[in-house]
Amino acid sequence: MTHALALTDAEIAGIARRLDRPVVLVGLMGVGKSTIGKRIAALLGTDFVDADEEIERAADRSIPEIFAEFGEAYFRDGERRVIARLMEEHHGVIATGGGAFVDPETRALILERGLAIWLDCAIDTLVARTARRDTRPLLKDGDPHEILSRLREQRGAAYAEAQIHVLTDDGPHNETAYRILEAIEAWL
C-alpha cells in the first residue's frame, strides 16, 4: 500500500512489533481521537477501544447523565478506573475523553503505562466537528468557540506532557494516521 507518507507495510509491521504499550490518544473533544484511533489500530493490526463508550457501558448511563447526576469529580474517578482497566487488558489503541489526560492521576497512569499522543487542531475546526453531535456536556451552556478556546487554554499544559504531539486539522484521516505512525516510529 502506498500513500503520501513513506511508510511501507513492512515498516508498519515493524512498528507494531516494537510497540510494547497501548497507544493512548488525548486531546480536546472533536479532534478525531475515535475516528483516527480506528485507522491507527487497523494499520497496526490491533484493536481499538473508546474509553467513553466503555465508561457508559460500565455505568449503564450516558456521559451527560453521569455528569448531571453525580458531577465531574465522580465521572473523572470512574474514567480513571476504566482507562486503567483498558490498559491492563492490553488494548492496542485507546481513545480517551477530552478531560481524561487533564486529571493528574490519569495522566500519570497513561504516561507510565502507555504512549500518549496529543491530537490537536484549530479551534474553528473543533467547533465545526463538535457541532455535528449534541452529546457534549461541556458545550451545552454557551458559545462553543469560546468554551473550546478556554478548554484549550486550561488543558494545553497537560496535553503538552504527551510523548507525541500531532496536528490533525482537516486533511484526510489516513494521512493523519500515517503521520502518527511516523511519529511513533521516531519515538521508538
UniProtKB/TrEMBL annotation:
It catalyses: shikimate + ATP = 3-phosphoshikimate + ADP + H(+). Pfam families: SKI (PF01202). Substrate binds at residues 52, 76, 98, 155. Keywords: Amino-acid biosynthesis, Aromatic amino acid biosynthesis, ATP-binding, Cytoplasm, Kinase, Magnesium, Metal-binding, Nucleotide-binding, Transferase. It is an enzyme of class 2 (transferase). Its EC number is 2.7.1.71. HAMAP family: Shikimate_kinase. This is Shikimate kinase.
